[in-house]
Design a protein that fits this description.
binds zinc ion; 2 strands; 134 residues; Multidrug-efflux Transporter Regulator, Chain: A, Domain 2; two-stranded antiparallel ribbon; DNA-binding; 2 domains; homodimer
Chain lengths: 134, 134
Amino acid sequence: MQIGELARTTSTKVETIRFYEKIGLLPEPGRTAGNYRDYGAAHLARLSFIRRARDLGFTLDQVRELLALSDDRSRSCTAVDSVARAHLAQIDQKIADLRALRRELDELIGQCSQGAISDCRIIEALGPPSNARH
Amino acid sequence: MQIGELARTTSTKVETIRFYEKIGLLPEPGRTAGNYRDYGAAHLARLSFIRRARDLGFTLDQVRELLALSDDRSRSCTAVDSVARAHLAQIDQKIADLRALRRELDELIGQCSQGAISDCRIIEALGPPSNARH
DNA sequence: CTTGACCCTATAGTTGCTACAGGCTGCATA
DNA sequence: TATGCAGCCTGTAGCAACTATAGGGTCAAG
Ligand SMILES: [Zn+2]
Ligand SMILES: [Zn+2]
Ligand SMILES: [Zn+2]
Ligand SMILES: [Zn+2]
């Protein structure tokens, strides 16, 4: 299997696959006589793993960790669980942050009366803290 | 006012201020005899604006746009409003994406039985799509 | 024998900073 | 006066996680 087919199969760009190889996430495949990369089932499985984990928002470092753990079939999976839970906590934090931001912004937009810039509450609120906001 | 004081006043790192100057977001200030940057009230106001907009999650391009608009005091602020509303829509999209992700991940974690890696549902779910998920 | 799709390497760009390295300036203290 | 040290200067490289060129080589079909 050459890189283009692997790319199509995993919905990954060719450049991304080469990038994963360069950073040591995907093992180097063999080469054909014409120096083309030649992938097998193991590569497909590993890249699928990476893509799924990335889709779930794990960082490349977390993916690396999960891959290392998954290679150690006999160990307990508490470590896997804790990586996943840590990631969940990060997501919760991000959601909370975005919600707070959304509230702020929504409030600001609600005050804009669509008049002149000089009267715009949005612009005013962004300016220096001369008068208190909220 | 020299750069360190401006940095402290606006809770911005010195390097960030120089960075904003380099990308043309903050106008170049005058210099002292010793070649130190010398800021005034206008710079403070502009940097405050930038910081607030950034805190609200606007990109630097959006900030640039808002700054340009805010300089044109007589115009209608519908353009400002539309920048802000576009940003709000982006935030809503991000929140929705994160929530979907969170649901997926939570479901996955709930299935982990804390046994051996080889039985771990998290690892399994990350693997190639041999059997359907969901 | 040429076209065109595919592959190769290497390097630079993206966003929004942050962190050096190596060198001035300016003020207080011994 | 010397010297120390905080603060400033420029310029460049690094972070995540790719993406996009440039400038070539390979391979099968027509
Ligand atoms: Zn508010
Ligand atoms: Zn307005
Ligand atoms: Zn699910
Ligand atoms: Zn498990």
